[in-house]
Structures are given as C-alpha cells and as structure tokens.
Write a structure and sequence with these properties.
The chain has 295 residues and is of the alpha/beta class. It is 25% helix and 24% strand. The strands form three sheets. The chain has a seven-stranded mixed β-sheet. The protein has a four-stranded antiparallel β-sheet with strand order 1-2-3-9, with no helix packed on it. Strand 2 and strand 3 form a beta hairpin. The structure holds zinc ion (ZN). The site of zinc ion has 9 residues, from loops.
Length: 295
C-alpha cells in the first residue's frame, strides 16, 4: 500500500519530483536493495500544508521496510576516517551549541555510523551509540562507547537516562519521524535535550534548487521536513523550548559552485536530463540544513 500523505502533518502531497529508478542514483547500496522492487520511478510530493518533501512511492510501503536496508550497508556507506579531521570543526560547533556550559553529560547519538561525532567528544562524556549498520559499528569497538546495533526503540539502554539524544543526517531517512520523536523523548531525562540535524525543505537554497536539489537524489531521503513541520512535531510531543539554527552541512560546496550548478539546472531542466561529462549533475548542498534543539 502506498502512503500518499505527509508523514509530518497528514496533509496532501502535490507531485514534486519523479525520476526513473534506472538513473544513476546516489546511495548505490540502497538502490541495489530497492532495484529488486518493481517500481519504475522514484517520486516525491510536496505537502500542500507544511511544505515538507515526502517520498510518494514504494519506499514508504510497509513491505519494503526501507530502514532494514541499512543493516547490510556496505563499506562505502561508512563515514570515512580520512574525513574525520575535516569534519571536526563542525562537530565542535555542534558540541558548543548543544552543551554551552561544557558539563559532563550522558549522550546517545542515533544513527552514529562510525561514531565520528561521539569520538570528537572528550572522555568526560558518557557515550552511547545506536547504529543499524554492522560494518560501521565494528569501527567503534575499543572506543569506550556503549553501542547497540539496531534502532533506539529496540536498544537496551534505560528509559529516561540520557541528557542528550542526537540525530545527525538521520531524520530524512525515517518513514515515521513523529514516532521517532516520541521514542527519543522516552529515553531522555526530564530536562534532556534532543538535537536533530537534517535538510530543510523550506530553506532558501533548497527552494531555489527545487526538484534538482541534490539532497533529493539520495534514494534513502524519504522525508525532508520544513522547519515548521519539524518544530510542530516536537511541540506536539511535549517539547516546549525549541530552537532552530540554519546552517550548512559539512559536505556543502561553495556559493560559487552552488550558483553555477543552479544556473545549469535552470537551463537544462530536471535532474534526469542534466547528464553530461559522463555524470549526473544536481544542485549541491549549500545553507540548506537546520539544527533543531528541543527540550
Ligand atoms: Zn505536511
């Protein structure tokens, strides 16, 4: 059964983007899994109410169970250690934002991949990591991090035990993000904080790129919220203090690159048609993410 409504607000989805599955899609690991499904196109709709961009195809069906694909994610999906030093300033910025007084805290990073963010924190933190991919978790052995392979919902970590729960580059992969917010809340201490870093469908640069925004060319990016959708979902789950910061993902390109590729996309049309020099061109990431901190 297909899901034709917004996973954030239940609003109707207006057709926004459609591309043949046979196109050279990013996240090869996932497309290999999904190519076995009998769907000729990947399509997304934009919610007429909250402007989130939500997959509107077989990826949302219960039978596909898209999250299960991450358990067998290959080595190409594991964060590369050579990127660690480059990503470090970003992690330090996040650490200051979520813990400005630098108190020793208990933290659980969900979808921690090879644990780069947790490893960037000093030993005063009590660290927990949740990750479905077994290859990524192998890199976390000997790192004094308590790990669980799977999801936070099925983790053995005690309820109401965490000062912080973080989700970086995770929410856009979730078929039911509102349920995940409830699960996170149940693992937080009473005054604990939830921090979510994800793409923002209503950022100026995402809106300018439209269907050619590279963020949407990842098979796994099935629910890209607007700022309004994510903050309302947090508010409905009982979070009362919600702060949103607009920022660039560490994998963003320069404004110059962004502008050139945006101009090309406007001239050449939809991403399926922007294929030259033997590669597929999309409008790169630039100032299109948000960090939402809620308590
Ligand atoms: Zn919506």
């Amino acid at each position: 059964m297909l899901f034709h409504r917004c996973v954030y607000c239940g609003g109707a989805l207006k057709p926004f983007r459609s591309e043949p599955l046979s196109c050279a899609y990013d996240e090869i690991n996932l497309s290999a899994h999904l190519k076995s499904e009998k769907s000729p196109t990947l399509s997304s709709g934009k919610c007429i109410s909250c402007q989130s961009i939500i997959a509107n195809d077989f990826r949302m069906s219960d039978e596909v169970d898209i999250l299960n694909a991450y358990t067998q994610a290959p080595s190409a999906y594991v964060s590369r250690d050579q990127d660690f030093q480059g990503n470090l300033p970003f992690y330090k910025t996040i650490e200051k934002l979520i813990n400005p007084k630098a108190k020793p805290m208990t933290i659980c990073d969900v979808g921690c991949n090879s644990g780069q963010f947790l490893r960037s924190l000093d030993e005063s933190w009590d660290k927990f990591g949740v990750e479905p991919g077994s290859l990524a978790l192998q890199l976390l052995e000997d790192q004094s991090i308590n790990t669980h392979q799977g999801t936070l919902a099925n983790s053995p970590f005690p309820k109401q035990s965490m000062d912080y729960i973080t989700y970086f580059d995770v929410f856009e992969h979730l078929p039911n993000p509102k349920e995940e917010i409830e699960i996170a809340k149940s693992f937080l201490k009473q005054n604990g904080k939830l921090a979510i870093l994800t793409g923002n469908s209503t950022s100026m640069t995402a809106k300018a790129a439209g269907p050619t925004w590279t963020y949407l060319s990842h098979v796994g990016h099935i629910s890209v919220p607007s700022e309004k959708a994510l903050t309302q979902a947090l508010s409905l789950s009982g979070f009362t203090k919600i702060e949103t910061l607009k920022l660039s993902h560490p994998y963003s390109r320069s404004f110059f690159d962004w502008l050139i590729l945006l101009t090309l996309s406007k001239i050449l049309g939809t991403p399926a048609r922007i294929k030259f020099f033997n590669r597929r061109w999309t409008v790169p990431l630039f100032q299109d993410h948000m960090l939402v901190i809620a308590s």
